[in-house]
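Please check these two lines:
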Amino acid sequence: VKCEYCNTTGSYRWISSSHEEECPGYPVECPNHCETGHVRREEISVHLEECPLAVVKCPYAVVGCDSVVRRREKMDHVMGSVVQHMEYTMLTNQKELTVLEKRLDAKDEELERVKQDLQDTKDRLDVKEKAITSIKQELEVTRCVVKGNGETIAEKGKELAEARKNSEH
């Protein structure tokens, strides 16, 4: 025997008893008892996404409206609760603004710390640069002294050598 709803074949007993409980094409009543009446079992989830009698949350639930209404009444609820929804929206926006202001304040404080760290680093670098400049100047003076002393020593060495020569004669 063939199932009249999905064309599956099997024994009459199986088709008329257990198969009907799982047959994807078997007509089942909408759980909301809407005017659509019966829907193929495999299409019931799609139907429930569109069923006018399905209970849905208000689209303003994200800002605090806790109303649940039948889908077909949703627009009436939205239009009839505009002021309340705007109040919810304003309150939510104010809370978000407060959070963002706190985050901005924290970022400002962090920026000030970074600026101070940068200034401290620049100050330490300036001190090091001055020390390096001072060391370079001392090194130049030392080079001049060594060079000068080198010339003096060489001159003294020549004078001494001449004096020895003259003393030997």
Notes: The two ends are 149 Å apart (CA to CA). The chain is about 65% helix and 5% strand. The mean pLDDT is 91. Residues 91 and 122 are 46 Å apart (CA to CA).
